[in-house]
Write a structure and sequence with these properties.
Layout lengths: L1 H21 L6 H12 L14 H20 L3 H6 L2 H26 L3 H11 L8 H4 L6 H29 L4 H29 L12 H18 L3 H15 L1 H29 L2 H5 L3 H22 L7 H9 L5 H13 L4 H27 L10 H5 L17
Helix pairs in contact: 1-2, 2-12, 3-8, 3-11, 3-12, 3-16, 5-6, 5-8, 5-14, 6-8, 6-17, 8-9, 8-16, 9-10, 9-11, 10-11, 10-12, 11-12, 14-15, 14-17, 16-17
Length: 412
């Protein structure tokens, strides 16, 4: 644990120091943590000899995904969704199921997984993560509708994929009807907790006698999240669905609490994700990669370059998106942190094909982080407008008239 803490702190410091450079080049902090974990992990330096069975792996992954889903839900309040829902709705309602289906077909045909396990692979790899396309999503020169599409889609698809992962995992493990009923109860309890706790908390703060001070305002959402986490564990409700529902409910009924928490919450979520990426990298040893057959590598690449484009292009027929915007949206479906945790859930479930599925999922995520994090700046530059004429250039030419530049041409 001490080695992990020191390693994370050291890599975090390096990431902070190079963050400005990473923002304008193909360098990526996500790749930095992934590669650092790989180098420090088993089979290379053995500084962090972690295995999926280690308690710190599961605990950190669970906390990180809870924080991610809570903040994702915070970005998806109903008022925000109603303002521009059409394009993200197409991506989620049509593109996401098609992505799941195409991925399942590829998994079945290429590596021979049974259909239940193939669909499980599709569900685990369906969510996307905007963190690995930060230069695209954060670039104001990229059309707002494209940035909104990617943000809303990635904010919602983690939570939407969760029930599919849980149900398909139960099917793949051969659960009986009673166990599936228990599963439904866990999902329902998680949903109720995620809706009721924020509603009560926000209503209490709105009464005449209770109010948070300015300094404590960001902690309202923190308290809501921690209470949802504790109640979910105590009642055996599904923690992840509870977190997602709590985020959406808080953003919907408590816009002031949402605004106060937004920046702080994103930082906490980012720290947990980076720590989890370091641990995930430590699990990907050279031996781990060598165990994946050739067709497994083909599948991982096909998921990235075939499944999402095949699914999204028909989803955007008739929309105002340009071809360039559609290509950017189709390419930037990076497999993010939710897929890491869902893959660990599959491994922990002990199903016969669990280890094979985890290998395939982990490889796809690694390739996605490397490819998407190193191309977001390049693709974002597609949307740069024409370069402005330097100020010194204009200064050397006196206009022939008050109306424009020499020659009467149109102003650039």
């Amino acid at each position: 644990m001490t080695a992990l803490l020191v390693a994370f702190a050291a890599v975090l410091l390096v990431a902070v120091l190079v963050s400005r450079l990473a923002g304008r080049t193909i360098l990526s902090t996500a790749v930095l943590f992934l590669v650092a974990g790989f180098v420090l992990g088993s089979g290379v330096t053995d500084v962090l000899p972690l295995t999926p069975e280690d308690g710190v792996v599961g605990t950190l992954a669970e906390l990180a995904l809870f924080a991610v889903l809570f903040t994702d839900g915070m970005r998806a309040g109903w008022s925000d969704l109603r303002s521009a829902w059409r394009l993200p709705g197409r991506a989620l309602a049509l593109g996401m199921p098609l992505t799941l289906g195409v991925t399942a077909v590829l998994a079945h045909w290429l590596v021979g997984l049974p259909w239940a396990e193939s669909l499980l692979v599709g569900a685990v790899l369906a969510p996307t993560d905007p963190v690995f396309a930060a230069a695209l999503v954060g670039n104001e020169k990229v059309p707002q509708r494209l940035r909104h599409l990617l943000n809303v889609e990635s904010g919602l698809n983690d939570g939407i994929a969760l029930p599919f992962v849980v149900v398909l995992l139960a099917v793949a493990s051969g659960s009986q009807e009673l166990e599936l009923g228990t599963l439904g109860t866990e999902l329902a309890v998680g949903l109720v907790i995620g809706v009721v706790v924020p509603l009560v908390a926000v209503r209490l703060e709105a009464t005449r006698f209770l109010a948070a001070s300015r300094a404590y305002e960001p902690l309202t959402a923190v308290a809501i999240g921690l209470l949802v986490l504790g109640l979910g564990q105590a009642t055996h409700g599904n923690l992840f669905l509870a977190a997602f529902a709590a985020g959406i409910t808080t953003a919907t009924v408590g816009p002031r609490q949402h605004e106060a928490f937004e920046e702080f919450g994103e930082l906490v979520s980012e720290l947990l994700k980076l720590a989890a990426l370091l641990v995930f990298g430590a699990l990907i040893s050279p031996q781990f990669l060598a165990e994946i057959p050739f067709l497994g590598w083909v599948l991982a690449l096909a998921v990235l370059v075939v499944a999402r484009p095949v699914a999204l292009f028909p989803s955007f027929l008739g929309t105002p998106l340009t071809v360039r915007e559609q290509v950017a949206a189709a390419w930037f479906g990076p497999k993010g942190f939710a897929s890491v945790v869902y893959g660990l859930l599959v491994l922990d479930a002990g199903i016969p094909a669990g280890e094979e599925i985890f290998h395939l999922v982990a490889l796809t995520i690694v390739l996605s982080i490397l490819l998407h994090s190193s191309t977001d700046v390049v693709v974002a530059r597609w949307f740069d407008g024409p370069k402005e004429t330097p100020a010194w250039h204009d200064g050397e030419r006196a206009p022939t008239s008050a109306g424009g530049p020499p020659g009467g041409g149109a102003s650039g």
